[in-house]
Amino acid sequence: MNSNFSQPQRQSLIGVVVMFADTFQGTARALWPFLIVWIWKINEYNKLYIGLAVGGVVLLVALVAYLKYLNFTFFLDEQNEEFVVRKGILNKSRIAIPLDKIQQVNINQSFIQRLIGVHALEVDTAGSNGKEVSIRAIKESLAVSLKERLLEGAEDVVNEDIEDNADTPRTRQTANKPFIQISFLSLIKTGITSNYIRSFAVLLAFMITIFQNLEEFINVTGYDDSPLDDYINAEVLLKFISFIVGAIIFLTLIVNLVRTIVRYYNFRITKQQNGLLLSYGLLNTKNTIIRPEKVQVVTVGRNYFQKKFNLNDLKIRQASGNEANDKDQKKTAIEIPGCSESEKNVLLQFLLEKVPEKGVAVKPNFRKIIFESFKFLIIPIGIYFLIAFMVEPSVKEYMIFVPIYGLFAATLIYFAFRNSRLFVSDDFIIKQSGAWDVDNDYIAPHKIQTISLKQFFWQKGSDVGIVTLHTAGGTISFGLANFTKLNELVNYWLWQVETTDKHWM
Amino acid sequence: MEEPFINETIDTSQLPKYEDVVLTPLHPSYFKIIIFNIGLVFAILAIAAGAGFYYIQELEPYRIIITIVYIVILLFTILMNVISFKNRGFAFRAHDVIYRSGAIATTTTIIPYNRVQHVAVHEGLLSRKLGLAAVEVFTAGGNSSDIQVPGIDKDQAEKIKYLLMGKINPQQDEQQL
Which option is the CATH number for B89-172: 2.30.29.30, 3.30.360.10, 3.40.190.10, 1.10.10.410? Predict the structure, then answer.
C-alpha cells in the first residue's frame, strides 16, 4: 500500500502514446475503405495535399489522445467502497464499480505498452457486461498495488459471506514464486504437435484450390479435351502432390509453432489469494486470475504425440457474469499448454480440490457409429452426388476426393467412437471424447445447473439417448448410450445436486 | 469447518426416478393458441398464394403442385403440433422442475431448485384472454438450459412462481456475489 488512491489521478503521462496508438488504430479501422481508395489513386493527387491531410489527421488524433488522457481519472471512494472512473471528452461519463462486484483485475501489457514501460489494468465485474473498466497506461508498481487494493475490498465482502467455506485456505504470500513454469521446450513440443485437424482441413482446402487452378490453367492453354489424364502422368502428379503436401505440413507446423510461442512464451503460474495467477505472452503479456470456485469445466486434451512427449493441454472454463453461448464459452476458455503429467495433477488438485479418478465407465451404444456416419458420411456425400448428377455436372471432376473424404471421415468416426466414454464417480463426471485429440472434460456434480435428456422417436425402441449437462461454463453432452443407464445416472446427479450444500460459484 | 467424513454406499436404484414422475399435461385451452398461431401463418400464406395465382399468369401451371404442397405442409405442421402437445408435460417436484417437450425428438429438461436464478411469468395477448400464462425458469447455464412451460393456468403459474421464489430466496440472501 505505497500509494494513495483516494484522490482522483490521471494515468501515466507517457500513456498519451498508448492513447495515441489506440485512437489512431480506431481511426484507421473506421476509415480503411477510404484509405484504400486513396492509396489506389495516390498518383492522381498532389503530394503536398496528401502530406497535409496525413499531417492533419495525425495532429487531430494526437489532440484527441491528449484530451482523452486529460479527461480520464480514477480513484477509490473509500466511503462508498467504490472504484470510480471518469472519462470522456464531450460525453462525460462516471463509472462507479462497487468493490464487492469486482470479479477479476487483470494487468496486461501490449507491445506498445511494453515499449514505453506501462501496463494496462482491466477490471472485470460480475454481470453487467460492457461496463468493464480499463486503464490503458499505468506504472507497474502502481498497477500492482491498485489491484491488490481493489481485490482486497472485494475479498473482504466475499469472505464475510463464505466464512464457513474453510476448504479454500487463504494463502497470502507476498513474495510469490511461480509454482509452475512452462518451459520453452514444452512450448516447442506443443507447437509442433497440436492443431493437426485444423491443419489437415487447411491442407485439404488448399489442395482443392490448387487442383482447380491447375485445371483452369490447362484449359486456358488449350488442352481442353484432356484436362488432366494424359498431360500429367501418374509419376508427375504423385511428385507434385507429395511436394505440395510436404510444403503445407511444414508451413502449418511453423505457423503453429510460432503462434504457440508468441502467445504462450514464458508461461508462469503463481498461487495468489485464493486463485492462480497466469501470466504469459511474448509481445503482449497477459495476466489472468483463475479462482477455483469459479471454475466450471476443466478440459485436459492430448493427442498421440503429446502422450509420447508427456504433454497435456488444459482448458479452463469459468462461470461468466453474462450469459454467453457455448461457442463463446469455448473461446473464452483459458488455456494452459504443455503441462507435464505431474503439473497437470497439481493444477487439477488446485482447481478441483482433488485429482479426479476415473470412475465407472459408460460406453456409447454402437448406434452412435450409425448416427455419426449418417451425419458425416451419407448426408454430405449424398448431397454431393445430388449436386453432381442433378444440378452442376462440373463438380463430378472432384469425384477423386469422395473416397479420400470417406476414408478420412470413417477413420475419425471410428476412433471418436472408440474414445467416447463417460466416467462417473462420486466426485466427478469425466467425459472422454475425440478422435485424434482426446479430450477429458472434468465436471464436479455440484456445478451442474440443468440436465436435459434427448431421445428421437426411433430411439425409444432401442433404448438409447443423449444426456446434456449444462453448467455456467458451457455444456457437456454424451450419447448415444443406453437410456436406462443414463436415467439412472441422471437420478443420481440430481440427488447429488439437490442434497449438496456446495455452491456452484 | 471440516466436513465429517461420510461415505455410505448409495443404492442408486433406490433414488427417486424422474422418469416415473407423472407429468401434468398442458392446459387443454393452450391447444387453441397453437391452432390459432398455425391458422394465422397459413392464412397469410394462403392469401399470398391466392394473390399470386390471381395476378401472376406464369404461376398457372404450378397451381395444383403449390396447392398440394401447401396442404401437405399444413397437415404435417398440425400433426407435429398435435404430437408435440401430447408429448409436453411438466412436474414440480420437491427439489426440481421437470419439463418434457418435442415431437420428433423428446427432450426432458430438469432444473434443481437450488440452481434457479430467477423466474418469470409471461402472458401473451391470446393467452390472457384464455386465462393462461407461461412460466420461464432461468439458471446460470445459459439460454439452452432455461425452460419455458407454456399453457399453465394463470393462478397456478403465480403459485408456481411464489413456490420457486420461496425456494430460491433463502439461498440468494447468503450468496450476494
Answer: 2.30.29.30
Model-level pTM greater than 0.80?
no
CA–CA separation, B6 and A493 (whole Å): 18
Q: pLDDT of A251-306, one tens digit each?
A: 878 888 888 888 898 898 888 777 888 888 888 888 888 888 888 899 999 888 88
C-alpha cell at A298: 476443466
Per-residue pLDDT reduced to its tens digit, A89-143: 888 888 888 887 777 788 888 888 888 888 888 887 755 444 577 888 888 888 8
Least confident range of A218-227, A373-382, A409-418, B62-71: A218-227
C-alpha cell recorded at residue A50: 496528401
Nearest to A419, CA basis, from A361, A471, A485: A361
Dist. CA B82–CA A334, nearest whole Å: 46
- Give me the residue label for grid cell 449444462: A470
A180-182, strands of its sheet edge to edge: A180-182, A267-272, A275-280, A286-290
Report if residue A47 sits inside a domain: yes
**A385 strand-pairing partners:** none
Of A158, A491, A497, the CB nearest to B15: A491
DSSP structural state of residue A292: G
> Between B1, B111, B146, which is nearest A164 by CB?
B1
Check if B95 contacts A (Cβ < 8 Å): yes
Q: Is the dihedral of CA B153, B155, B159, B165 positive or negative?
A: positive
Give the structural domain span for A477: 291-364+420-499
Place of cell 459471506: A161
B106 in contact with chain A, both atoms CB, cutoff 8 A: yes
**CA dist., res. A418 & res. A369, Å (int):** 10
CB B159 within 8 A of CB B24: no
Which of A155, A452, A469, A493 should one mutate to test binding to chain B, selecting the residue with the greatest count of B CBs within 10 A?
Answer: A452
Residue of A337, A296, A298 lying closest to A186 (CA atoms): A337
Q: Which of A126, A470, A490 sits opposite B145 (nearest CB)?
A: A470
Residues A427, A359, single domain; the answer is yes
Short-list A377, A365, A294, A383, CA closest to A333: A294
